[in-house]
């Protein structure tokens, strides 16, 4: 694994966000411009792939930049009746 990527985690960006910060977080992780990642999502959507579905899925499973747990984990814990972990 590349030394630059070790220790990094996928996180939604708080600073570089347009909707939910998914593209900004992916761009920060990969070290590329967020607009390139956004264009890839748009291209995938226009070419018939599930760009929107992948974006929503990433939004659910990627925790925010300053959060410990993802939105999906919080939803599952609430559904199970367990207290949310902060």
From TrEMBL:
InterPro entries annotated for this entry? Phageshock_PspC_N, PspC
- Cellular location of this protein? Cell membrane
Give membrane topology per the record: Single-pass membrane protein
Pfam families associated with the record:
PspC
Keywords, sorted A to Z: Cell membrane, Membrane, Transmembrane, Transmembrane helix
Q: Which residues cross the membrane?
A: 39-62
Assign the protein's first listed, main location to one coarse class: membrane
In the UniProt record, does the keyword Cell membrane occur? Answer: yes
Q: Where does the Phage shock protein PspC N-terminal domain start and stop, copy by copy?
A: 8-64
Any idea what this protein is called?
Answer: PspC domain-containing protein
